[in-house]
Amino acid sequence: MSNRLANETSPYLRQHAENPVDWYPWGEEAFRRAHDEDKPIHLSVGYAACHWCHVMAHESFENPEVARLMNERFINIKVDRQERPDLDDIYQKVVQMLGQGGGWPLTVFMTAQREPFFAGTYFPPQAGYGRSGFAQLLRGLSEAWQNNRGALRQNVEQFLKGYRAMEARLLEGETPPEQDQPAAAARLFAENTDRLHGGLGQAPKFPNPACHDLVLRLYQRLREPDLLRSLQLTLDQMATGGLYDQLGGGFARYCVDERWAVPHFEKMLYDNGQLVKLYADAYRATGQPAWRRVFEETIGYILRDMTHPEGGFYASEDADSEGEEGKFYVWTPAQVQAVLGEADAALACRAYGVSAAGNFEHGSTVLYRAAALDAEEEAQLAGLRDQLLAARARRVRPGRDENILTSWNALMIQGLCAAYQATGTASHLDAARRAADFLQDHLSTPEGGLYRAWREGTAKVPGFLEDHAFLANALLDLYECDFDRRHLERATQLVELILEKFWEDGLYFTPSDGEPLVHRPRAPHDGAWPSGTSSSLFAFLRLFELTGRELYRERAEQVFAMYRAAAAQNPFGFAHLLAAQDFAERGPLSIVIAGERCAARALAMSLHPLYLPARVLAFAEDVPIGAERSPLAGQASAYVCRHRSCEAPLTSAAALVARCLAD
Question: What is the CATH architecture assignment of 181-319+401-586?
Answer without folding.
Answer: Alpha/alpha barrel (1.50)
